Amino acid sequence: MSSTSRLFSTGARHIYDTGDRLFTDAMRENVTYHCKNCNEYRQILSERGYSPDRIKSFDDLAELPFLTTLYLKRHKLTSLPDKKLIIKATSSGTSGSRSLVGFDLKSLMLGKDMVINVGLYHRLWSARPANYLIFGYEISKTNTTAVSKTAYGFTFFAPAAHREYAIKTEADGFTLSWDSVLAALERYSASPFPMRTIGFPSYTFFLLEHMEKNGIRFKMPKGSLLTVGGGWKQFYTQKPDKRRFYELAKEHLGIDENCIVEFFGAVEHPILYTDCRCHHFHIPVYSRVIIRDPDTLIPVKNGEVGIVDLLTPMMHGCPLSSIVTDDLGVIHDEPCPCGAKSPWLEIIGRVGVSGIVTCAAGAETLLKGENV
Amino acid sequence: MILYGGKLYDNSFQDELTERLRADIDRALDRDISADTVINACDVLSKRVIDGKYDDVVIPLLNKLGMDRSELEKTAYIMSGEGLRIKCYRELDEDMSIGSRVRKRYPLGAILHIAAGNADILPAYSVIEGLLAGNVNILKLPMGDQGLSVMLLRELTDIEPALTDYIYVFDVPSADTARIKRLASLCGGIAVWGGDAAVRAVRTLADPDTRIIEWGHKLSFAYAEPDCDDSELYALAENICRTDQLLCSSCQGIFVDTDSKEVQNALAERFFEILKSVSAKYPQDAGIRAKNTINVYTAELEHKNVLSGGGVSVTVCDDSDLTLSGMYRNCWVKRLPLDDIGSLRRYKGYLQTVGLLADDSRRGYISDRLARAGAVRILRPGAMSDTISGEAHDGTYALRLYSRIVETEV
CB distance B298–A353 less than 8 Å? Predict the structure, then answer.
């Protein structure tokens, strides 16, 4: 059994254990594999004088040349022929261009093990049907965004009694209607089944604000979950205090703070980060994070803010071993009351966000609106 | 937030108020609102801005945009009585009669303004332009609008209650195309500010009998002779650092009048040092610096020739394409000999300002060549992003586009 397979078969109770040995071995396997199968990746490493055999300890991974999401948006790198990439997902294209990531069968199976165990650890699996409210587009042939796929995938944690999409595809484009969302909430509140929502936190927050403004309140059935994922993206400047978010959810949907679950992940790093009861994103065994200095890219100490570099040996279709995203974050290593042993990652913003939308670049989102 | 008839309403009144809109527009358009009425009201508003009446809103905004008070005063001047009179005088030539025909300018009708969220003052300014030409104006607020537009427009109706029937603000999410279509169908024109996607979307949703006035995104650049003065390069670097290359008129990069790589490299190196020194005067936030670091690293992965350091970069390119830079003090330097300047014509609708760094003896000739290639503002590098009252906008006069010329025989 390969180190990677062993890593991904870690039992649910141990997914937040620490120890770098197995992870490092799996990374060496993964980087060696990509070097063999992806010419561009091999070239990038050799130009920087890096050889996969160098990966002996975790510290050697800091030296591993990383790719950036920006690079992946402009270059399609694969380590397998196209026909082996069963699922193709695109990033949500917050800034216009999208990166395309292909999943092969092997990576999908590793991902499946991960999802099962993360779901078990966080008690997301349920045999009881749930009514889903999805803040996103219905998936279709033209909409391949990973966000839509993940959102759809999420509706299998509990059998779906009903799926309601907040954004509807119509002949002349997309429409978003709070009215139909509120109508669905009203139906769900009277249903014997719990409700589960999934969507960008910004949408969920805007809905709660809308309910507050209009004095609308529902009491959702017991066991209902509010799950949010995908980050705040272009809404960072409107990011509310989490406390206020939880208060609004309690007040307007009757959902307790411990029934609010947040996910974090990226197409380029498809690891399912799930927050603990203290709302910390503990780093699971499948992944490591290196925070890098915003000017020099040299790794910084835990507790310091910098550019987020995400590492995982999960992917075989594309060389996503080490990816620098557009997120700014910080690693916390102080003990967490939830009991998980691994440090946690706090995303504090996105690079380049300064409160002003660029003009010359084009606010393409204008009529696409709150784009997914 | 909705502004309707001078009063603020909650968004839940959207449908009800849209219902009433057609009749209210018709009533307003049956009457005339003179440009003087609008100008006088704007003059009062502009004085109040300068006197600091709105400082609690304005100061945080300036800080956010990294502007100082003198720049605010320049903007306020454009909205002042004097500024707007110059604008109307330049753009609306009233004496157009020939023979027995009397030619007169009338408003287009109602105008739906779809504003972009990148310049906070812009949505309100777009409405004022519509008012100057006598139109009823419906503003669709941009996403993330912080309330400044509603505040300014409401002040305007307080100052001059006659304007209340000519100003409406709706807060419709852009994804709600059905509602936007409904508003658009009431209008004779749609003024759209934004990128290609926004313009394209408006073209799809507008009825064929509705005029679309497009204020699309533009690209600006510098054109430099290899032996241009350091002082001009400093002025260009100031434009890049002060605007962070975010404006349509911001310099994205430099075309050098040469076909020699050595000459190009020499200018790139000279400019890189200047840009670095100028940038040091204007602090950058960590998020922007991080973005720059990632961009430069990515460019290196792509084997691009990048000079970088001190939070700025200059990429030396082999093509002569007009492209958006990395922005935030990351520009490109490309070769474009004067004889090939006509190749810029392929960017027809995107060209705006050229900062020209050339010897005075050749300025006229090169300016003419650039204008023939499609540029609409050819200025000195330090003035690229300056606006003056009465200047044309993207090669045309807004007020004329917001008007109809009517001929009558008496």
Answer: no
